[in-house]
């Protein structure tokens, strides 16, 4: 069974304090006006981990990005079985761009509900709200944290935890967590993927949108997301942002402290030299990223370790990726693997996580 199929077959528990999902499916994925896939994390995640739910893609006129799905209008997608349009594109800051509104209205008029993981609320847009009310359609916002989240206590919890962290945003933290949780279960271990972002929540069926939580409660939300568990149980927690990102480091740090990880896996994109969207800020060297992340994580778990690096080698052939992964492992002195390329390197990373 493939990693993606194994994840989809797993039973995802509804967590205390988490947001259960009851969504109209399958989906038409809206790619907005994106010109490349950098800002299509939601679409990529759904395509790769829940392909049976993805009927087609739909984009603004002139947009060039594609997920490789059939291209359909909302009317065509509804006729093909789609029941909701998902905002598969992300803008900086999680906004719903004004240029998207006519396309979203067209989806409502075609009979589709709309699902959004943006920070902006769908119903706050007057045209969407009026159209949905007139047609009896649903506007569903995933990025809504549960009420009553606590302040973090820092109390040590039972069970084992792994958190994926990154040198930047949009480089594979969710994919790495999904793949590792699946690999742990394949080895007969009790392991659950804990979703912290809108796409992960759509895939898993539960979770907390950590970047929508008020800052004082971020670490507390992470504590609730990975509660006390049996000593041999693993929570594999989806990381968010990067402590090296000027815009999102606060979210990443709260998640790091609240997760109290026993193990970290650092995620990095091969060839990326600058923080996406902030070219004045360089991506940190791997050694520096590991050292600082461990230092910060020790506030709530003095025994935390880094298992290795999840290296995003998208765009390379399997042969070139294998050579590169071996070279980086020697250079960085730790296991390195691309979780989307199963094999000896990935199994070595899994071994390091469990040692």
Detailed description of the structure:
- This protein is an alpha/beta fold.
- The chain contains twelve helices and 13 strands.
- A six-stranded parallel sheet has the order 7-8-6-9-12-13, sandwiched between helices. Strands 2-1-3-4-5 form a five-stranded parallel sheet, with helices on both faces.
- α1 (about 5-10) packs across α6 (about 175-185).
Mean pLDDT, all residues: 92
Taking Cα atoms only, what radius of gyration do you get, to the nearest Å?
20 Å
What is the end-to-end distance?
25 Å
Number of strands: 13
Biggest sheet layout:
6 strands, parallel
Shape: globular
The strands making up the biggest β-sheet line up spatially as: 7-8-6-9-12-13
Order of helices and strands: HEHEHEHEHEEHEHHEHEEEHEHEH
Q: Which descriptors would you attach to this protein?
A:
single chain, 355 residues, alpha/beta, 6-stranded parallel beta sheet, 5-stranded parallel beta sheet, 12 helices, disordered N terminus
Protein topology:
Blueprint: H1 3-9, E1 27-32, H2 41-49, E2 54-59, H3 74-79, E3 84-87, H4 101-109, E4 113-116, H5 126-135, E5 139-141, E6 160-166, H6 173-186, E7 191-194, H7 198-204, H8 218-225, E8 234-237, H9 249-259, E9 263-269, E10 274-275, E11 278-282, H10 286-297, E12 305-312, H11 318-332, E13 336-337, H12 344-354
Parallel strand pairs: 1-2, 1-3, 3-4, 4-5, 6-8, 6-9, 7-8, 9-12, 12-13
Antiparallel strand pairs: 10-11
Helix pairs in contact: 1-6, 2-7, 4-5, 8-9
């Amino acid at each position: 069974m493939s990693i993606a199929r194994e994840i989809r077959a797993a039973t995802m528990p509804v967590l205390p304090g988490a947001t259960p999902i009851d969504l109209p499916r399958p989906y038409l994925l809206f790619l907005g006006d994106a010109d490349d896939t950098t800002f299509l994390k939601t679409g990529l995640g759904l395509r790769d981990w829940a392909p049976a739910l993805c009927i087609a893609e739909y984009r603004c006129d002139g947009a060039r990005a594609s997920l490789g799905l059939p291209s359909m209008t909302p009317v065509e997608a509804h006729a093909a079985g789609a029941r909701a349009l998902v905002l598969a594109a992300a803008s900086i800051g999680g906004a719903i761009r004004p240029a998207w509104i006519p396309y979203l209205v067209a989806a409502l008029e075609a009979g589709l509900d709309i699902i959004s993981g943006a920070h902006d609320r769908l119903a706050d847009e007057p045209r969407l709200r009026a159209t949905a009310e007139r047609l009896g359609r649903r506007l569903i916002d995933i990025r809504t944290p549960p009420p009553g989240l606590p302040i973090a206590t820092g109390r040590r919890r039972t069970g084992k935890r792994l958190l994926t962290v990154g040198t930047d945003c949009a480089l594979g933290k969710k994919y790495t967590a999904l793949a590792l949780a699946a690999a742990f279960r394949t080895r007969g271990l009790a392991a659950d993927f804990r979703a912290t972002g809108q796409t992960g929540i759509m895939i898993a069926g539960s979770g907390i949108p950590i970047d929508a939580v008020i800052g004082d409660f971020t670490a507390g939300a992470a504590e609730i997301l990975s509660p006390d568990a049996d000593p041999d149980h693993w929570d594999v927690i989806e990381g968010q942002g990067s402590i090296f990102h000027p815009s999102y480091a606060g979210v990443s740090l709260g998640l790091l402290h609240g997760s109290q990880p026993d193990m970290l896996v650092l995620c990095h994109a091969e060839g990326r030299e600058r923080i996406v969207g902030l070219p004045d800020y360089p991506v940190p060297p791997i050694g520096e990223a590991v050292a600082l992340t461990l230092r910060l994580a020790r506030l709530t778990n003095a025994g935390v370790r880094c298992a290795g690096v999840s290296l995003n080698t998208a765009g390379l052939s399997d042969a070139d990726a294998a050579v590169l992964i071996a070279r980086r492992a020697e250079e960085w002195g730790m296991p390195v693997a691309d979780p989307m390329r199963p094999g000896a390197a990935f199994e070595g990373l899994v071994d390091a996580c469990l040692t």
